[in-house]
Structures are given as structure tokens and as C-alpha cells.
Design a protein that fits this description.
By secondary structure, the protein is an alpha/beta fold. It has 9 helices and 10 strands. The chain has 2 domains: 52 residues, no CATH class; 265 residues, Zn peptidases (Aminopeptidase). It has an 8-stranded mixed β-sheet with strand order 3-4-6-5-7-10-8-9, with helices on both faces. A two-stranded antiparallel ribbon has the order 1-2. A hairpin with a 2-residue loop joins strand 1 and strand 2.
């Protein structure tokens, strides 16, 4: 779909593009308008050299991601109810309660309406919502918040923080469809939280356009940018993969999709109820998975690659943005 800017260019010619945004009569901000750069293409093949390192919003910055992940996995303290705490693990009820409080604070800070879904005496999902113009159609960004008793920085603190950052980037947008974040509990016990959540959905009342589930986004030892978007060739879900691959290409991110198929994460709970879903992950099945997976050493360390995490977050973020704004 054409951006508003390029339509204006067609109508008024190109000189407006070169004027400083401050003096332009059109309300465009080049820092946040992802379509602004090279929105006008002259004949011939010239490529402009000052391409900004495109980031939709600063929340995808690797420093931001590292800070948030350090807080969510106990490397840095967090303030909860005025008290300094460390989220050392996310398996015990106390650890998960701290984690939920941290997510609630962050998401309410962005302006989202946050609620909890206690589906059993042990399990509680956390949900953040923003209504779109079509409130009964929703795009979901998700990740599991529990760990196997360890700090769980990569698994799946990274997925949670990627998802939270996407929510931050879209917080002020006017949305065509509703946007929802879900942090699932008890994924490590066998997708318990996401199954409970999927069961609670009334798909007659609400259409889920797609679920973008993030599962381990911060490890890339080979530094090759390989990552999975997994749809197992399901007819209802391949369009989500295509959208992410297109986003990678559009922003020229150094990422390469590698194929794999698994139902061992929360996306599968949506496949069970015929809802489009993909899981986005490091190249786990391509031989580049985190050796600290499910171990005590899964902490924020030099082993994690925040530039890679930021690239994945940005690709999924743009795809979510297009889905929720109805521009794809
Ligand atoms: Zn996991």
C-alpha cells in the first residue's frame, strides 16, 4: 500500500519531500515515518547513501532491550510498589508475581489496559489491550513469561521483552484493529497458560487476525542473522510469515529466515482452535541454539546478541504494525 507521503508526491510533485519537516505543510516526521526515506524514486537505479539505520521507534534500540531484559531476568533491580526487588526466577508463585507486577507497570506506563487471567490456582496469564476502530478483530503479540526456575533471560525473557517493546512502539498509534499482548504462564509445564487462554476465546464474538508468538530472540552465536518464523505450512498462518519476511526486506535488516516446524511453543495452542499463528525464534533447529537453554547460565551475558534481538523485534514489530493498522 502506498504511503500518504507518496500519494502527496504524486499530487504535488517531489519538492515537498526535500523541505525540512518543520516547514512542510504536511505532518510527517522522518524519524518515525518508515516510508519517508527513498519514498521518491527517480528514474534510473541510484541509491541514496545516507540511509538512516531505520528503526521504527527508539524502543527497539538494543540498549533499551538489554536494560529491560536485565530487569526482567534479575540482573538489574526493579521497583515494585516502591520496593527494590530482583526477578531472579519466574517459576515460583512469588517470582511470577513479581514478573507480572513488572509487566503491568511497564504496559500501563505505555497506556495499555492490563488485566490478569487466573485460570487455575497455580497459573495466571497477563493481558494488555488497546481497542482499534474494529474492536472485535484483534492482533495478538505473545510470549511465555515463566521460566524453568532459572533467570530465563533468553527463554523466554527475550521474547517477552521483544513483545513488550513492540507494544511500546505501537502505544500511540491509531489502530484499525485491536492490539493485545498476552504473557502466558506455565509454557514450560506443557503450554498450560496458552491452552487456557485459547480455550477462553470466543471466536464467534472476536476474530483473531493473527498471533505473533516470540520465543527466544537473543542468541545468534554465528552472527549470521538466521532466525525462524515457523508456520508448518499451515494455510491459515503462512501469510503471517510472508509479512515478517517482507518487513525484513523492506527495512533491509540483516536477517535470514530458516525453515523449521514445531508445535512446542504457545503458537500451537492457537492452531488447535484454527487461529492463524506463528512462532518467531532464534535458529534453534538450525544448530545455533543457546547452550544455556534451560540451565542456570541463561542470564544476560555477552553470549546474548542485542543487535540481533533488536532486528528480530523490529521485523516482527513492523509486521504487527501493518496487521493492526490494516495496511497489509
Ligand atoms: Zn521457551
Amino acid at each position: 500500500m502506498k504511503s500518504i507521503l507518496s500519494v502527496l508526491i504524486l499530487i504535488f510533485g517531489t519538492h515537498q519531500v526535500h523541505s525540512h519537516p518543520k516547514h512542510s505543510k504536511y505532518p510527517t516526521d522522518w524519524r518515525t515515518d518508515e516510508d519517508a526515506y527513498e519514498s521518491y524514486r527517480p528514474k534510473g537505479k541510484r541509491t541514496y547513501s545516507h540511509q538512516p539505520k531505520s528503526r521504527i521507534l527508539k524502543v527497539y534500540d538494543s540498549v533499551f532491550l538489554k536494560t529491560k531484559l536485565s530487569e526482567f531476568s534479575g540482573a538489574l533491580p526493579v521497583k515494585i510498589n516502591g520496593k527494590e526487588e530482583y526477578i531472579k526466577e519466574r517459576e515460583s508463585q512469588a517470582g511470577k508475581k513479581l514478573a507480572r507486577a513488572y509487566l503491568r507497570d511497564t504496559l500501563e506506563g505505555f497506556g495499555y489496559k492490563v488485566r490478569e487471567q487466573a485460570y487455575s490456582s497455580k497459573g495466571t496469564n497477563l493481558i494488555a489491550d488497546k481497542e482499534g476502530d474494529n474492536p472485535d478483530q484483534v492482533v495478538i503479540v505473545s510470549a511465555h513469561m515463566d521460566s524453568v526456575g532459572n533467570a530465563g533471560a533468553d527463554d523466554d525473557g527475550s521474547g517477552v521483552i521483544s513483545a513488550v517493546s513492540i507494544m511500546g512502539a505501537l502505544a500511540k498509534e491509531k489502530l484499525k484493529y485491536s492490539l493485545r499482548f498476552v504473557a502466558f504462564d506455565e509454557e514450560e509445564m506443557g503450554l498450560v497458560g496458552s491452552r487456557a487462554y485459547a480455550k477462553s476465546l470466543d471466536t464467534n464474538k472476536e476474530e483473531v487476525i493473527g498471533v505473533f508468538n516470540l520465543e527466544m530472540t537473543a542468541f545468534n552465536k554465528r552472527k549470521d542473522g538466521a532466525f525462524h518464523v515457523i508456520d508448518c505450512d499451515r494455510d491459515d498462518s503462512v501469510s503471517l510469515t510472508k509479512s515478517i519476511v517482507r518487513a525484513v526486506k523492506d527495512i533491509k535488516l540483516p536477517l535470514v529466515r530458516t525453515e523449521a516446524c514445531t508445535d512446542r511453543s504457545d503458537h500451537a495452542s492457537f492452531w488447535d482452535i484454527e487461529v492463524p499463528a506463528v512462532v518467531i525464534s532464534q535458529n534453534f533447529f538450525g544448530g545455533d541454539s543457546n547452550p544455556c537453554y534451560h540451565r542456570a547460565c541463561d542470564k544476560v551475558s555477552d553470549q546474548l546478541n542485542f543487535e540481533y534481538m533488536s532486528n528480530i523485534t523490529e521485523a516482527v514489530g513492523l509486521s504487527v504494525k501493518r496487521a493492526v493498522m490494516g495496511t497489509q
